[in-house]
Amino acid sequence: xxxxxxxxxxxxxxxxxxxxxxxxxxxxxxxxxxxxxxxxxxxxxxxxxxxxxxxxxxxxxxxxxxxxxxxxxxxxxxxxxxxxxxxxxxxxxxxxxxxxxxxxxxxxxxxxxxxxxxxxxxxxxxxxxxxxxxxxxxxxxxxxxxx
Length: 147
Fold this sequence. Notes:
Largest sheet: 4 strands, antiparallel
Radius of gyration: 35 Å
Distance between the termini: 103 Å
Strand content: 5-15%
Structural class: alpha+beta
Shape: elongated
Number of strands: 4
Number of helices: 4
Helix content: 25-40%
């Protein structure tokens, strides 16, 4: 009988303890009550911010690459935009079409960038400095400096 009472008491204590423990609710919310002095710190839940709308930037119209040109150089934007075709002699054009990492092609692209332009390939993709770095990984380059 003593053993049954101990088991019952232990089971009751476990049930009461389980009822008191709930899921964690996060930090406690402390709000001043009416008539009570204002505490130095008030914690209130903050509603989530409204979704940020994407800025509406007028899109640049696509660049039309003329037939026979592998690249175009685009300088400026909007009304001030100038587009210049970069054309090569047929032998070099064939080389640049197959292997854009080669020196003559890279030289002309760098010339465009030096004048403040962006290089757009015939497929409409921009050839960035990151793309140039990928090209350099493909080809072992040895550069001699004159100084």
